[in-house]
Here is the input.
Amino acid sequence: MEAQGADAATVLAAQAGDERAFEALYRRYARVVHCILLSRLPASEVEDLVQEVFLTALNKLRSLREPAAFPGWIASIARNRATDHLRRLPPAEALHEGLEARGANASERAEAKRALVAIQSLPDAYRETLMLRLVEGLTGPEIAERTGLSHGSVRVNLHRGMQLLRETLSKEAR
Here is the structure.
């Protein structure tokens, strides 16, 4: 909860025009926004959209009435931006198109692509929490803190998501 209080103070400073405070929010939440977008969109589209999400947040920050709600608010902006972007994509565009694993060999890239496609086939709630856990390495409490979800929801989503991911990958391996 201490981090949440610090975030609220940082949000208040950013709302007052402190650029460094907004930069601190960006550093803290960019990975979360990245994973939310990556769980829904082609990897090649994500980097630019992370920037768009934060531009939207910057422009609307003063309208955020409860600074402690920032984690859920920024996550919601990211989800909405992903939904809007998906509506504009050609239907044939694959979610995994453009996936590149830096420094990985061909078999590692293929395995990463297979895992990403499997994660992206899961329900939204599971995709987000799994991406934040598996890609960003965040713990359950960190995921809850940075997305505005309850600890219980994160725990359930991670558990059920991992079960579904194992099932999906084992079916694919057969």
